[in-house]
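Table 4 source record.
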Amino acid sequence: MGTGEGKNQWHYYRNCLLFSLFFLVLASLFFLYVKGNSSDSRQVKIGATYMTMNNDFYKTLNAELEKKTNQQGSRLYVRDSELDEGKQSQQIAYFIKEKVDVIVINPVRSDSPDIIRALNEAKKAGIRIIVVDAPMNKQVVVDTTIVSDNYQAGVLIAKDMMSRLSEADILLLEHRNAISAMDRVQGFLDTIKGHPTYRIVSQLETLGQTEESMPQVKSALANGLEFNVVMALNDRAAIGALAAIKEQGVAEKIYIYGVDGSPDIKNFLANTNDIQGTVAQSPIQMGRKVAEVIELMREKKSCDSQYLIP
């Protein structure tokens, strides 16, 4: 064998050895990375179902939850129930099938038999349940409920209205199946109670949606209903009321109030006099709190039965 051929073989074996060493180092680093990012337990699987994603509040809440769960290395399944309780119960059944560890639910209806049945099945399967924004019926024992102080929202609106007007004819826009929405209305009603100059002239079911609120308010105006204040359960219903008032050409000043602090309402407040005010919730803070509770559950630590966000 010539000297040149021997050198070629040596280079070949050396390159093979270097490649093997490189591969082993790379594999070791990858193993250490995976081990380091898996914490001390398996990946947490989370199923989140919201009454609707046609609302900036839930989009923002979920975005914050998604960001935090990604940092924790968790897997998040997100579903939009589109205000359909049957659909939401099917989504819960899917989460059970996927063997999630935690279900985060914003219920379409707090007293829905289908949703209650599905959540009870989830509990039997050992799944933890976190309720957000609207409490569930007490027929379900959930692990924790994370809500804004919805009663306080109604109180704040009533106080602002009373500071501006000595009397008012008030139209209430409601979502009667959502406890959070009715808590806001109750806070408002309790605050004006005993003040006969503040009168409720009508209460309309709007499901908290612009496309429901607008025709309802338009019909009320067309039928001669007179009011100078709209207390809407949320900003989307308030925007629907505003659209109806504009379309009907109402010239008199109407004080419109919402709840959420959504981008659309903030835009109206900054650039027009059409909206009187909104009580701002913090979906970011709520999303962070959900992520914190999930981390407590992962670490097998206790959590409070309720977290109330001002």
